[in-house]
Amino acid sequence: MSVSTRLSIYWPESQVEKRPEETDTIVLTTPSGKYIDIRSYKSQVLLSDKSLTKFPFEWAFAGNELPVKNHPSQVEFSHDFFDSSFILKYCRTKRDGHGSLPCRSDIPIDCGTFKTLDNGVREETGKMKNESTGNFESYIEHWITLDPLKSTPTNMLPLQVVQDGSLNYALFDILENKQNFEGRFIRLGVWAQGLLWDKKNLEFPISIVRLHLNNKNWDIIISFGRRVPFFKSLASTEVHNGEIVKNFDVIWTCLEAGII
Prior knowledge:
The chain is mainly beta. An 8-stranded antiparallel beta barrel has the order 1-2-3-4-5-6-7-8. The protein has a 7-stranded antiparallel β-sheet with strand order 13-12-11-10-9-15-14. The mean pLDDT is 87. It has 2 domains: 2-145, Lipocalin (Beta Barrel); 168-259, Protein HRI1, C-terminal domain (Lipocalin, Beta Barrel), CATH 2.40.128. Strand 4 and strand 5 form a beta hairpin. The chain has helices spanning 84-96, 228-235; strands spanning 2-10, 23-29, 34-41, 57-68, 71-83, 110-116, 122-129, 136-145, 168-174, 181-188, 191-198, 206-214, 217-224, 244-247, 250-259. Keywords: Cytoplasm, Nucleus. It is found in: Cytoplasm; Nucleus.
């Protein structure tokens, strides 16, 4: 279970010079390995409906993190559960009526190899789709694990020691109406992130949110899409494992909840 942020990414095969990190990337991962990874561009932190004409994210996806058997330093990341690139292409193809619809089973599984550098930064190497080129390329990413209780959007504190206090976490997933919606919401410590695909809306199918708990209020850090109010109310909902929550016209189930 972790809250992570990316410090940098470099694509050696693209022959592009290393540049400062252009995104505010945060990944929330539950104890079972289910995660949400949201990579918003730094120039557009807080968004509104007026920004819906352009998708202001490098990538937004969710899936499962699974260690590779007999290779403890390698981790597989599936994201066929939710992938903004696939969804946008699917909706564009269906809306325009040209070409074949993309197949979800064709979304590749990324595999990263991790090592911890002397400065505590986690270095990940592997191959995945470069959203800038559309090609499957080698990459080098640097990550830090954040303190899930003390970090803030303006002060990303690295996790130094095991938490002294208890850490609440909860994962929601769509239970019913999968013909209309698909999505995931994770609340972990003072952070929460959510993704939702409204399948009936081909123009603006994706809603995304990142929230941070400030005292007793969940502040919106990133807000994009028509259904952001769904997530704000979910963040304040206390749930138990297996509990069903009806949120507006979407029915969710809590797949994980607990205190560590």
